[in-house]
Each structure stands twice: as structure tokens, then as C-alpha cells.
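Bumping my old thread because nobody answered last time. Still need a sequence for this structure:
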């Protein structure tokens, strides 16, 4: 049975980001198998709560796929994890998400988010140079960098590229990569469970590089802002490296503590603008190459001239052209690209996540309440995943924005979209279902 659970974990590892797997799945133990019930052990209450909220659907689906039968999953807090050679004796341990150790740190970052894979142009040249200088520790007069851009322009790519580069140079560096939302959740948990001193120890004295994403989420989080301010003071005084990303300047974030805004602004502030035409051409060619797609250059230049909002829109055009060519068995040419661009332009004006949810509910015969619920019934989970996939494809919204529209978190949306992409390749019934819904959305028949 242990080998079966290891097989399940291997499959899960393929479908979620590395840092999510290392943080939450890798430490789960198989405790018991009783009939149709499978008992799994998490190292602490916090981990059990997080896995239940964000990963239980995937775990359940993979177990049922292996057993080819419905199963009931029970998550317990296991006392089987060891500390200094002894069992924990049931004592609750607080584990912070995304705080790396020297052996596993590099697994927290997307392997393709490197400086080599970042397409540099006039719109992002300064941000790229500042990030590279900070990562290398050369030619940079500040240890703090604040990367500013709208969604979909590459700030997360640069942030993770810094982490990847530092760890490739020295994997003993203690790198902490975390979103402002996760930082807040971890701090709230620490306060509620009398673990705040351990929380402070992790972030103030066991961190050499702090990468904090989506700073704008701190808006209105007064207690989190105060604690983060003290943390930044400690790290800055110790000469540690700090990297922040946000869609707004610190002073422009509503309900932001003035002292924290000042600390966030203490280093280099670099923004990323919309890519220019030549950069868009290089982005399309690079992404086509990564997907092993061959596009005629007149098509590449047409897409670059028409899709100007953000990198994600370029990706949508590239994927749309490749998908239509494959499904309709027609060659990739400018006429096909024109049709795809026309649909993208119309969708960007008309489609919202709410409209996509409504049409999926109508087609799949589920209520909006069920779609947004915590239900793990397959008849509800798959429509929910398809709706997330369509939202990503047709609205250009970030994973975080999509997840919030479904009362989920970033990792859940990322997983759901990956599942649908795989099912489209492997299951004809899902492929046809997605094609039908896509045609409805593209035709404006909402």
C-alpha cells in the first residue's frame, strides 16, 4: 500500500508547483487503509488545515484514479515525524510555508523563471538589470528591490529568477519566497496558536533573502503591516536582500502604514511597462520555441502588432492560433491569426469571470452555489475546473484573481487549469466539452 501512496504523490508532484508539493504534500504519510477509507497523516494542525482547504480534491482524485473506485480520505495529525531522533509525542509543531532549507530551496521556484528565459526590451531593461545585479551582488548599491508592474508583465518571473540564480550559486543561502497573503495567514495562525516567537525567528533570523510577492494584498492588514515592518528593519540592519513585487507603489496602496511604505521604498524601485513591438515579437518567438511550435514570421508579426495589452494576451494569441490550426486541420496563416485576434479583442471587452461561471453552470447543470462551494463531488469539481480554465483563457486575469472569484487560492486555480489542459489532451469528451463552451463564448452566445 505504501508503494501505491508513493505513486499517488509522484502524480501529484507533476500537477502542482514544486514549492507547493514540498511544503504540503511531501511530508504526508500513509497511516492506514480501512476498506474504502484511507487515513493520511500531516505533520501538524496547520498543515492538515491547509491541505484540506487547497489540495484534498487533487489527492482524492489521484487516489480514486489509482484504485478505480470511490475512496474516503481522512486527514489526521501524525506523531510519526521526528525531532532529534525522538517522536513528537503528539506536540503540535508550527511550520511556516515557503521558508526553504539549503537542501530543498531550489525546488520552490519555477525552473523556467530564470534570467536566461526573460525577454528583455526597452520596457523592462532597468528592472532586469536591477534584478540581475541584486542576485549577483555586483554593481548594486542597495539590498532592496521593489518591482512594480500591472498583472501579466513579468514581475513574478524576475522575482523567481533572483531566487533561482542565488540558489544556483550557493544552495546554502536561506531563501524565503512567499506571497503577502501567505505571510498574513501564517502570522494569524502564529498569533492564534501562541507561536509568534517561532514565526519571528523564522523570518527575522533564519532568512538571508526575502522575496515577498503581491505587496498590495497588505492593504488594510494593520497587524501584518506592523509585524512586517519590524521584520524588514531586522533584515535590512543585517544586510539581507529584500525583493518585493506589487501592482502599486507603496504610497499608492490604500490603508498602507506610512512607516512600512517608507521601508518598502528604501531600495531601488523599478517598474515594468508594456512591451514594445520588437519585444513582443521576441516574446512570441521565445514562447513558440518553448512549446515546439513553428509559426510563420508574418503571423508572429501580425500577432505582435495587434496584441498589445500584456504578455498573457500574447500567450493567448499564440495558444489560440496553434489550437485552431490543430483542431480544424488548417495551416497557420495570417487569416487564421486575424480570426483569433478578433475573438480575443471582443472577449476582452465583453467577457468576465462571472459570465463564464454562469455559462458553465447552465451547460453543466450545476448551480452557482455548488460551483463556488467546497464540494468535492466529481460532477461539481470538473465544471469548476473547466470554468477556471476558461476564465484564464478568455479574461487574461491572474491566477490569484481567478482563484478569489471561486473562493479558492492561487495554487488551487493553478492546479485546476493544469488538470483541464491535461484532460483536453487525454480525454475526447472533455475536449469536446471545452470546445463547445469556447464556441459559445467566442460567438457571444452567453
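Sorry it took so long. Here it is:
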Amino acid at each position: 500500500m505504501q508503494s501505491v501512496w508513493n505513486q499517488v504523490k509522484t502524480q501529484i508532484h507533476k500537477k502542482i508547483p514544486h514549492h507547493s508539493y514540498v511544503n504540503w504534500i511531501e511530508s504526508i504519510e500513509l497511516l492506514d487503509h480501512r476498506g474504502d477509507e484511507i487515513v493520511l497523516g500531516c505533520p501538524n494542525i496547520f498543515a492538515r488545515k491547509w491541505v484540506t482547504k487547497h489540495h484534498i480534491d487533487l489527492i482524492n482524485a489521484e487516489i480514486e484514479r489509482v484504485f478505480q473506485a470511490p475512496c474516503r480520505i481522512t486527514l489526521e495529525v501524525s506523531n510519526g515525524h521526528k525531532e532529534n531522533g525522538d517522536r513528537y509525542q503528539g506536540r503540535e509543531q508550527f511550520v511556516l510555508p515557503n521558508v526553504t532549507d539549503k537542501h530543498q530551496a531550489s525546488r520552490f521556484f519555477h525552473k523556467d523563471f530564470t534570467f536566461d528565459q526573460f525577454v528583455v526590451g526597452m520596457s523592462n531593461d532597468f528592472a532586469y538589470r536591477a534584478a540581475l545585479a541584486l542576485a549577483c551582488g555586483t554593481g548594486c548599491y542597495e539590498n532592496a528591490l521593489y518591482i512594480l508592474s500591472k498583472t501579466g508583465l513579468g514581475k513574478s518571473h524576475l522575482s523567481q529568477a533572483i531566487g533561482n540564480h542565488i540558489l544556483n550559486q550557493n544552495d546554502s543561502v536561506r531563501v524565503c519566497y512567499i506571497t503577502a497573503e501567505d505571510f498574513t495567514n501564517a502570522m494569524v495562525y502564529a498569533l492564534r496558536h501562541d507561536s509568534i516567537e517561532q514565526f519571528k525567528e523564522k523570518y527575522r533570523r533564519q532568512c538571508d533573502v526575502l522575496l515577498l510577492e503581491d505587496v498590495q494584498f497588505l492593504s488594510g492588514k494593520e497587524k501584518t503591516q506592523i509585524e512586517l515592518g519590524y521584520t524588514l528593519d531586522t533584515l535590512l540592519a543585517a544586510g539581507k536582500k529584500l525583493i518585493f513585487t506589487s501592482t502599486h507603489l507603496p504610497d499608492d496602496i490604500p490603508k498602507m502604514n506610512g512607516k512600512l511604505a517608507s521601508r518598502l521604498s528604501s531600495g531601488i524601485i523599478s517598474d515594468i511597462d508594456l512591451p514594445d513591438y520588437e519585444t513582443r515579437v521576441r516574446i512570441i518567438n521565445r514562447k513558440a520555441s518553448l512549446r515546439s511550435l513553428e509559426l510563420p514570421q508574418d503571423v508572429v508579426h501580425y500577432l505582435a502588432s495587434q496584441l498589445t495589452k500584456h504578455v498573457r494576451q500574447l500567450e493567448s494569441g499564440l495558444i489560440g492560433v496553434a489550437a485552431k490550426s490543430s483542431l480544424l486541420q488548417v495551416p497557420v496563416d495570417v487569416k487564421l491569426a486575424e480570426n483569433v485576434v478578433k475573438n480575443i479583442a471582443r472577449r476582452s471587452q465583453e467577457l468576465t469571470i462571472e459570465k463564464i461561471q454562469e455559462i458553465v453552470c447552465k451547460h453543466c447543470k450545476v448551480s452557482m452555489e455548488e460551483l463556488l462551494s467546497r464540494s468535492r463531488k466529481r460532477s461539481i469539481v470538473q465544471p469548476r475546473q473547466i470554468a477556471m480554465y476558461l476564465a484564464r483563457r478568455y479574461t487574461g486575469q491572474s491566477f490569484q484573481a481567478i482563484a478569489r472569484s471561486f473562493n479558492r487560492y492561487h495554487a488551487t486555480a493553478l492546479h485546476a487549469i493544469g488538470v483541464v489542459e491535461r484532460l483536453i489532451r487525454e480525454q475526447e469528451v472533455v475536449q469536446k466539452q471545452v470546445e463547445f463552451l469556447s464556441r459559445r463564448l467566442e460567438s457571444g452566445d452567453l
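The CA atoms of residues 37 and 72 lie 5 Å apart. Let me know if any region looks off to you.
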